[in-house]
Write the structure tokens for this entry.
Amino acid sequence: MSVSYSDGRFSMDLDPRERGPQDACGVFGVWAPGEEVSKLTYFGLYALQHRGQESAGIALSDGARILVYKDMGLVSQVFDEATLDSLRGHLAIGHCRYSTAGSAVWDNAQPTFCSARGGGLALGHNGNLTNTPELAEALPSPRSETTTDTEVLTNLLAHYAGGDSGSTIEDAAMELLPKVEGAFSLVFMDEGTLYAARDPQGIRPFVLGRLGETSDAGGWVVASETAALDIVGAEQVREIDPGELLTIDERGVRSRRFAPARRKGCLFEYVYLSRPDTTIAGRNVNTTRVEVGRRLAAEHPVDADLVIPVPESGTPSAVGYAEASGIPFAQGLVKNSYVGRTFIQPSQTLRQLGIRLKLNPLREVIEGRRLVVVDDSIVRGNTQRALVRMLREAGAAEVHVRISSPPVLWPCYYGVDFATRAELIAANLSVEEITESINADSLAHVSLEQLTAATKLPENQLCRACFDGVYPVKVDTDSRGEYLLEKSCGSPVVAGEK
């Protein structure tokens, strides 16, 4: 057995204060003898790049050894065709990662690896655990090299599968997973078997697909979103159930339940996190966002000349708003498609340009017009403030901001990089005060009830904690609801206020 890694390097965002909410990770796994699984995984991660742009990695097995290749940067920056051609095997898992500031280091890139039962174990994680310190206490000493929730899971699985008990990786997972709290969609593997597990609440999306033949002899794929199945030509079989462990090998797919399902899917996946061409719980995300726009128009009409979206996540809701209101839809902002992660540290002068790197107004469309500007969410307010200023400079007569989600009032503990409650603008200012702060003529949000209704899911099957503060899994907070654990798939073991 051998493991190799690529050289690492640091990356920088242009300005973390100008980011929207970020999901922590995307995961992908494939078991497909006879296929180029490294390239399938590459394309699967490419489809999931929106879920994490900090680092990317693939672990692959040829049946005798596991090879791990990972690095900082986008999927296309980490892998080239020569690298993928050198990664040969029948089984692979992949991961693309986003973390909070301070964690952007190669050591936290995934998949993680650990020796287990005379072989290897590689693991990728989407989500965030809420009982990492307690889990870490079960690790054998010394524990100094185990610093993230993903590493804790990897080492505990290896530990449970070790010793004289004769436990398999599957047995170890069935013993460990009932003790894990928080949000997790896991892909992991040994030399011959692919595993997938989803937390009992099913907070993050997770799906199973089939490659090629319809019998158990065909290939199998697991992924964070259905869009990743589409890009590799896999047919969706079903969602992985909350509280379910899948084992995939030459015998096909086997399912075991480690906990009863208590469905609490993340509502924010519909608002922003998932791709519009993804399906969650049988509901297309784009269809949901268009419906949210219609409901937003009914709740908060305005007399205006044009409806323009903040691309790309605001576009479907802007379409729905225009349809319902009868106000013409127009593309008033041009997005630079080539803006991604950058390794160049900007100066303060460049920081002040902020949103202009990503968006530029079409003056001919905007000048003299009363605009309805549809965006997906307001977190800190910095982006909207810069956007309104830019539209006014381009000659907009009025700027009415409409948001296709309710006010974000609470942090997320389950794998989304929201600000702390002290930084969330809606937690500290009224709608009227925010309107003044961003210099808009008006501001309105869709209601939580209407957003929920647009998903076609019952309220009791959704996690809406960032909007209503009702957390489905116990979290450690102080009296202000701030984080006590850093927010990332890769959160520190030692608790301490961020």
